[in-house]
């Protein structure tokens, strides 16, 4: 279908960082074929259906460079607890859930993402093939991966770090099957990555197999890196070095790798990661939520020239939060003004959820900018909203004051998935009811299967909402 978007305030994210008034965008099929003055495009294409974007800012759709939609099942429970969330709750809950339950919670995350102006999710997790199709049915663009380990992540909280080749083989089989079934599917809207879960739960043999898998299929790769003191201790004990140096020794670092977190990276680790061209997926809101401002060496990381992209990570898909809190953290990390302004500036923050995030999955020439030839992944933000008036510097306003409630419409691959604030691809009220019921069931089953875990005290006694 051809569509001419008219009268837009256009944020191109192109090399000149153009922000333009009264712009038109001609969409043909799943691509942008022309941009320019609205009036000129209207005159040149009199018969094409119009979408009037008067009062709306149109941006490249946000790319969430690191998230786990299934973990919405933990929302509102573990954020305020201390202790090992990764092996204490995230791993047990994922094994507790049925395929159908994972699908419901993943779709909940997808719909939240859509309402947050997101068009692409990069989502490594477990048993992904069983629910990847459900995620795709929401209309989002996806980079999916089976987050592999050959040390049983269900045993680590009990101190058992023994290697388990059979456990690892199941992951590799699931990863192969997922790539076979999903990579390039849904009109190439769904693609796959290769994921190592983390350096403390992947042996050298597993890392080698994952490198081979990525090479055979030509896929980008991802990993969690230096995300907890426990990981650092385990890697030092088993491999005699830091997480980053261990991955480097096994040949796992490279420009096709995005590593999430970097929390406990040393200056030498950062130098190494920068030299290898590894992208940092930073999840500023998620990682600051439990224990205060994220303490990664963000100034060093930026000064080393590392490409930084943003994700929401756990229990939310809100990329406005990522931008707002990311801006604060990275400015704190830099700690100084540059050329009369502050750094990173709003354009760099927006890059972390658009063009740079696109580059991290090898799609810099396809998504992340609004230019002819790019995929029609667009976010429409309502400027007739109190938080975004007055408009003086549009990108600055969106980075600092944008919020999901201002998202008016979202287009992915040339199709609206949200239009006039209505989700078009999913029965949203039914999904919300189902997600509430699933979460209750999953928690009860997880506690029954893992009696050592604490149960959240729901202050609403599982209300039938
Ligand atoms: Zn993660």
Write a concise synopsis of the structure shown.
By secondary structure, this protein is an alpha/beta fold.
So what's the CATH class of the domain at 62-368? Answer: Alpha Beta
CATH superfamily of the domain at 62-368: Metal-dependent hydrolases
Distance between the termini: 39 Å
User: Radius of gyration, rounded?
Assistant: 22 Å
Q: Tell me, what's the shape? A: globular
Q: Tell me the CATH topology of the domain at 62-368.
A: TIM Barrel
How much β-strand is present in the residues? 15-25%
**H/I helix tally:** 17
Tell me what the structure shows.
This protein has 465 residues and is an alpha/beta fold. It has a domain at 62-368: Metal-dependent hydrolases (TIM Barrel). It has 17 helices and 20 strands. Strands 1, 2, 3, 4, 5, 17, 18, 19 and 20 form a nine-stranded mixed sheet that branches. Helix 3 runs parallel beside helix 4 and helix 3 (99-115) packs across helix 17 (428-449). The longest helix has 22 residues, at 428-449. The mean pLDDT is 94. Bound molecules: zinc ion. Residues 66, 68, 224, 260, 313 line the site of zinc ion (ZN).
